Amino acid sequence: QVQLVESGGGVVQPGRSLRLACAASGFTLSRYGMFWVRQAPGKGLEWVALMWYDGNHKYYGDSVKGRFTISRDNSKNTLYLQMNSLRAEDTAIYYCAKNAVATGTTDWLDPWGQGTLVTVSS
Amino acid sequence: QSVLTQPPSVSGAPGQGVTISCTGSRSNIGAGYDVHWYQQLPGTAPKVLIFANTRRPSGVPDRFFGSKSGTSASLAITGLQAEDEADYYCQSYDSNLSGSVFGGGTKVTVL
Lengths: 122, 111
Hints:
The structure holds two protein chains of two kinds.
Chain A: E1 3-7, E2 10-12, E3 18-25, E4 34-39, E5 45-51, E6 58-60, E7 68-73, E8 78-83, E9 92-99, E10 109-112, E11 116-120
Parallel strand pairs in A: 2-11
Antiparallel strand pairs in A: 1-3, 3-8, 4-5, 4-9, 5-6, 7-8, 9-10, 9-11
Chain B: E1 9-12, E2 18-23, E3 36-40, E4 47-50, E5 64-69, E6 72-77, E7 86-94, E8 99-102, E9 106-110
Parallel strand pairs in B: 1-9
Antiparallel strand pairs in B: 2-6, 3-4, 3-7, 5-6, 7-8, 7-9
C-alpha cells in the first residue's frame, strides 16, 4: 500500500530552522517526482518544492526560494524539507505528495500524506 | 494570489448541478498541460477527484465531470449530494515556474 507519513512539524520562532520528513512506503522514492505543498490556516494550496525522480533537478516556489531545500535519503526512502529563516507567513500544514506517474513531474499528485503543522511564532 | 483562478464559492440545492471554473494562462493550461482536480474535506488532505482533464479514479462517482478548453478547465458536479460539501482545487503544471500551480479553491455548499 502506497503511503506517505510526514513528521517534524511544531512551533518555531521567526528566523529559526526546521526540518520536515516524509517517510514513503509501498514504492521507491527515487522513481517518482516528489512534491511539498503547504496550506496556511483557512487558505488554499500552495506548491512549495519539487524534486525530480533523478534527484538532480529541484525547483521551488517564489515565496520559499533561497530559504527552503528539498532533499531525500534513498536508503531510508524518505523525503525532507529543510526550512531556514522561517517567517510568520510560513505557518501552514505541510503535505508531501507523490507524482502519480513514475519519472514524471507534470501529473496529478497521489497520494498525499496526512500533513504536519508548522507554526512560526515568537 | 493563485496562478490559477477559481470562484471562491458555489452553491446548489440537493439534486441540482454546479460548475467550477479554473482559468490559467499560456504557460500552464494553455501550454497543453493537463488539469487535475482535488476534493478536500474538512481536516483532511486533498484527494484526487479528476485527473488528466477528464478521467475519474476508481471509486469517484460519475456525477463528477472534468473538461478543458484553451486556457481554462471546468469541474461539473451533477445531482448534488450533502457529502459533496467540500473545497475543490484545480492543479496544473507551469513551464515558467517549473512546478505545480493550484487554483485558490472553491467551497461547494449544498443548500
